[in-house]
Amino acid sequence: MKYLYVLLLMLTNSMVFSQTRYVMVIHGGAGTILKENMTPDQESAFREALTQALQAGYTQLQAGKSSLDAVEAAILVMEDNPLFNAGKGAVFTHEGKNELDAAVMWGPTRAAGAIAGVTTIRNPIKAARAVMEQSEHVMLTGKGAEAFASSKGLEIVDPSYFWTENRWKALERALKQDSLKTQLDHDGNKQSTNPALTNDYKYGTVGAVALDRDGHLAAGTSTGGMTNKQYGRIGDAPIIGAGTYANERVAISCTGWGEFFIRGIAAYDVAAQMEYSNTPVAQAALAVIEKIGSMGGDGGMIALDDRGNMAMPFNTAGMYRGAITESGEIEIAIYK
C-alpha cells in the first residue's frame, strides 16, 4: 500500500486505548494534505475552524442535549465555513453548479435522514435531519428535497451563495486537465479520465460523531462532492451504511473516494465487525480503511463507540480531524 497501515494503527491506538473518554469526533476531509504546502496562517485557520466545530457540539452535550443535536451543531459550523467542502465551501460540478449531499443517523433507533443533489438549501445537515424527523422517508433528492426543506421552514438561498473563488479556480484547473487528457488520449487505446477521479478533487467531506450523557450515539456527514463531477453523481456521504452510520454501539462518518466507500459499505462494515466479532472500534475502522485501500480507493473515517473510545484511521497524507473529551480537552490534528 502507498502508506504504512502499521503506523496508522499505532497512531490510532495511542489515542483510542487510553483511559480518556471522548464525546465527540469530527473530520473536515482527507487527501494530500502536506505541511510543506500549508502556510502558518492556513493551518491556523483550519485548526481554529475545527476547534469551533468541536466547541459548538460540546456546548450541546454539556447542556444535556442529544448527540444528534451535538452532531448537527458541529457540522453547521463547518458548513458555514468556506474552508470545507460542505455548504458555503462546496466544490463545483462539471456544469459549474454546487450540488450538496448530507445525512444523519440516530443510533438508538437507527432512524436516518439524507438529502442529495440540492443546490439551494443553505445547511444540508438541517435538511437531512428534517427528512429523518419530519417525513416517512430516508432520502430525498434534488428539487423534491429542496421543496421539502422549504416547506419545513429551512433557509433557502440563491445558488450564488455557495460560490467561492477558490472552488471556482479548482474547477477551472480540473476542466483544463480534463481537456488535456482528452487531447492526449487520441489513439483510441486509452480511456479518457476525469481528473475528479484521479486526484484530490475528490476529497473534502465533513462529518461528526457524538456520544451524549444518556449513552446515545449519532453520526452526520455533509459534502459538496467531487470537483468536476458529472451526470448527477452522488457519493457515499448521504448513503446510510456507506458514508454514514450509527447504532447503539458505534457511530461512523467517512470521507474520501466515495465510490469505493459505497462499494465497500464502509461505515456499516465497522459496525458489523463490532457486532458479529466483538472487534474493538479502532481495529474495525482500520480494517475497513485497509479494505478500501486494497480496492484502489483512499480516504478516512472517524468512529466513536458507546464507551467513548474513538478511531480516526486514514490512508492519505492527511485528514483534518479533531476530538473533544468528556472533560472538554480538545485535540486537533491535520497531518499523518
Report on the architecture of this protein:
It contains nine helices and twelve strands. The chain is α+β, with helices and mostly antiparallel strands. It has a single domain, classed as (Glycosyl)asparaginase (Glutamine Phosphoribosylpyrophosphate, subunit 1, domain 1). α4 links the parallel β3 (about 110-120) and β4 (about 140). Residues about 1-20 and about 180-200 have low confidence and may be disordered.
Keywords:
single chain; 336 residues; alpha+beta; Glutamine Phosphoribosylpyrophosphate, subunit 1, domain 1; eight-stranded mixed β-sheet; four-stranded antiparallel β-sheet; 9 helices; 12 strands; 36% helix; 22% strand; globular; disordered N terminus
Brief characterization of the structure:
The active site is at residue 205. 36% of the residues lie in helices and 22% in strands. The chain has 336 residues and is of the alpha+beta class.
Count of alpha/pi helices: 9
Distance between the termini: 15 Å
Strand content: 15-25%
Gyration radius over CA: 19 Å
How many domains make up the 3D coordinates?
1
Q: Assign the CATH topology.
A: Glutamine Phosphoribosylpyrophosphate, subunit 1, domain 1
CATH superfamily: (Glycosyl)asparaginase
CATH architecture label name: 4-Layer Sandwich
Taking pLDDT < 50 over at least 5 consecutive residues as the criterion, the unreliable ranges are: 1-18, 181-201
Number of separate strands? 12
Form type: globular
Order of helices and strands: HEHHEEHEHHEEEEHHHEEEE
Instruction: Give the C-level CATH assignment.
Output: Alpha Beta
| Portion of residues within helices | 25-40%
How can the largest sheet be summarized?
Answer: 8 strands, mixed
